[in-house]
Amino acid sequence: MEVSAARRAGLVLIVFACSGLLHGSRGENSPQPTGGVTLLPPVVADDGPQAFPDAEKANMPVFTMDYPRIQIPFEITMWVLLASFAKIGFHVYNKITVWVPESCLLITIGLMVGAIMHSVHEEPPAVLSSNVFFLYMLPPIVLDSGYFMPTRPFFENIGTVLWFAVVGTLWNSIGIGMSLFAICQIEAFGVQDINLQENLLFATIISAVDPVAVLSVFEDVSVNEQLYIVVFGECLFNDAVTVVLYNMFNFVAEMPVVEPVDVFLGVARFFVVGLGGMGFGVLFGFTAAFTTRFTSRVREIEPLFIFMYSYLAYLVAELFAISSIMAIVTCALTMKYYVEENVSQRSCTTIRHVVKMLGSISETLIFFFLGVVTITTEHEWNWGYIVFTLLFALVWRGLGVLVLTQIINPFRTIPFNMKDQFGLAYGGLRGAISFALVFTLPDTIVRKQLFVTATICVILFTVFIQVRGGDSTRDVLRCSFIFSTKAGLDVCFVCFVCFVCFVCVS
Amino acid sequence: MEVSAARRAGLVLIVFACSGLLHGSRGENSPQPTGGVTLLPPVVADDGPQAFPDAEKANMPVFTMDYPRIQIPFEITMWVLLASFAKIGFHVYNKITVWVPESCLLITIGLMVGAIMHSVHEEPPAVLSSNVFFLYMLPPIVLDSGYFMPTRPFFENIGTVLWFAVVGTLWNSIGIGMSLFAICQIEAFGVQDINLQENLLFATIISAVDPVAVLSVFEDVSVNEQLYIVVFGECLFNDAVTVVLYNMFNFVAEMPVVEPVDVFLGVARFFVVGLGGMGFGVLFGFTAAFTTRFTSRVREIEPLFIFMYSYLAYLVAELFAISSIMAIVTCALTMKYYVEENVSQRSCTTIRHVVKMLGSISETLIFFFLGVVTITTEHEWNWGYIVFTLLFALVWRGLGVLVLTQIINPFRTIPFNMKDQFGLAYGGLRGAISFALVFTLPDTIVRKQLFVTATICVILFTVFIQVRGGDSTRDVLRCSFIFSTKAGLDVCFVCFVCFVCFVCVS
């Protein structure tokens, strides 16, 4: 018995719209719940809602309602549940996901819900533009990738991974930044007020290949394990470079003079961030492994240690502003084999399943909210800047892969051929991390809205075109010819998205 | 290789003390985190902590620290992790848990940590005295009990369960309330300002048999399945009565005149609360069962539906101020068999394990925080009132079980014998729900602190004496003779606890 995906999608939309209407405006953070009771005192405050107020106020009420008390957990539960429905909906009607990847569908549904919320002047929950993303939504995804990373192939390719992660990200950031600065000098585009440092800062944000987006393309390791390892490893380990470059350019943007010692400190900071992240990861990984030696009598809480230690590694790295992604990935890589030997079979199954579950639902929510906030955010459009951003993002990625592969291939046992390089270049997707980072730019940057719009365009472009292209990559790797027909569908999607953005801007 | 429990306990204490000292005072809720960055902007605000500030402020910092941003998830993770360590510690040195149940150990450790925090003037996190308890800590435990309740025996005993839950709780509340009011008339005790309504309100709070505490005694269904079902069912289903009585006496305490229509409305409310709770539970249970028919392609998120629907049932019941415990238990009972047929084997294992895990860690945290806030709360001691509260709680429970059993036995296939009745009476433990409820009493009640102290005493008494007595119950049921030696140990514990309370009060 199949429920048509269209009907289900419609149901999801209606529920979203209703929830959007019902739950009122939510700004950055909802008001703190005060100490309350399980049981509503019958004498309710005058502003408390009552579903069926009694005729005489003095009598004991039989029906009462108290929404603010449960607002936060209720809304979180509703969003998670509705994201899960969306996933079911996509898969119930199987052919949809053959033509259009899940990430694109999610963004599209997000765009529609965002449009509905925007039209009724509702604020979406501040998920991607605040700590919620970095502290609660990103860790499960990164843990998922780290925990299921095949360890041996990973360490066999560690040199290549670090090469692309460090040098590749530097290449992209500086290349894109300089090119955009050159574009800014052209008066016709009207962006002369963006200086070099701001361009470099923006370039850093959009250079980082994103694990969330890459997961959509390289879901299946068996496509090409070498490729998967390198792209995935790159997107996890370039966080260290992104952190340092972001800090450096942010700092430099506010300082009139850049001294040589600052460059040296930047390099020093890179080692602190990278090695510090890995150090904490290894520390917590071994601690988790050690702890599971003593859990033979408390089997029911064994999985908890894995989650707590990984999360702690992430948080401690955040505390010291070092690479939290590297910390949690290294922690997962370190502890995995020891833990799976120590814990019971049921705990092992539970850990794997829960890690996958949390990663999956986080990814779904992120793509969905990407769509929602695309509509509800204020945009600033500039054809020249945005088109060239897209162009340079592609060109520098492609060039970078080409050049770097030429240099690294002699050192590899299995050199990358042209197909692999195509896959590497195409697999460089940008996603929610760039989006969240651009929101955290200081408000002193005048053209912040333009950067936000440009980042969204890059993300949507890579997810809609390149993800389909990623499927094409898989097809190319498998020598199939579906590329041309699917590209047609993609063009339609991109046009639709551009149209929507343009409408919002106007 | 065994690490002595004493050393581990010492380590736990030191870690707790350090975390208590390090993390500063935490009031009701910590300040909201503002939108932040993964990457700390190098130019930190003057009030931002920096671990190793550079000599010249103008240079890029290499080490930075930003604690407020991660404070909430970090502290939650630390408390959960340390509670887990405590559980490991108890079980590593096996003999401890033979003599002293885990709940007592946890409360004791909580008392010690509370003493340390009190001495350095630290506020413990407001876990038991706010929404956190009812919205986040109680649902996992109740879900655990509901999910693993043996369904057939439960429905075979449903009449007895409801009989004890409804009539038994009414009997206890009114009996204890009236008796305490009689005590209040005696001038010597100095509690004449507590009127009848306040006494009844307090009696309602301490009458409710608590699922958290009962879990400690009746961990093992095989001890006596009938007994387990009845006590457990009672403690889950008396929530409806508690909700209504609490509301009613709260309402009445503020109204000078009680009209007959209010009594009628109270009865009506009971049916709304009870049947409404069950209704929502059944609704969400069937919705969950139906949803899992379509999850064959999204196996990784199957467990999520179970958790989300159960939690939603709880929250919606809370929204309408009806019995949320009944809602979530009914939901779990309804959906369990359908869901376990529909989902994959791995999802099934994961669901069971995660439910047990969350219930276990919630229970651990609750007992622990019971100990902590026992010390850090302000108390008001009154020998007369408190001793008589303890006495009446025991006497009315015993009498109630006796009388109610005599009435219900003719209707039972397997009547309760004297041992069973002893077990039923002894199994009536009070726990954290009473504690959380007493905190939510309105501040207009003058002797609120006395009620808090009295509730704590009842809880500690039942947990320390009766839990051991519960083990004795098991032993009595198995005809063993360990009772006398263990009772001696219990007396020591109670003396210790009383001494600690007295010190705090003075």
Automatic annotation (TrEMBL), chains A, B:
A GO term for molecular function: sodium:proton antiporter activity
Q: Which residues form the signal peptide?
A: 1-27
Q: Record's GO cellular component, any one?
A: plasma membrane
Instruction: Identify the keywords attached in UniProt to this record, alphabetized.
Output: Antiport, Ion transport, Membrane, Signal, Sodium, Sodium transport, Transmembrane, Transmembrane helix, Transport
User: What family is it from?
Assistant: Belongs to the monovalent cation:proton antiporter 1 (CPA1) transporter (TC 2.A.36) family.
Q: Which InterPro entries match?
A: Cation/H_exchanger_CPA1, Cation/H_exchanger_TM, NaH_exchanger
> What membrane topology does the annotation report for this chain?
Multi-pass membrane protein
PANTHER family in UniProt = SODIUM/HYDROGEN EXCHANGER (PTHR10110), SODIUM_HYDROGEN EXCHANGER (PTHR10110:SF196)
Q: Name one Pfam family in it.
A: Na_H_Exchanger
| Gene3D superfamilies xref list | 6.10.140.1330
Species lineage, top-down?
Eukaryota, Metazoa, Chordata, Craniata, Vertebrata
Q: Name it.
A: Sodium/hydrogen exchanger
Name its cellular compartments: Membrane
UniProt-listed GO biological process terms:
regulation of intracellular pH; sodium ion import across plasma membrane
Q: Which domain of life is it from?
A: Eukaryota
Ranges where the Cation/H+ exchanger transmembrane domain occurs: 81-466
Q: Where are the transmembrane segments?
A: 97-120, 132-149, 161-188, 200-218, 227-249, 269-290, 311-335, 355-376, 383-404, 424-442, 449-467, 487-505
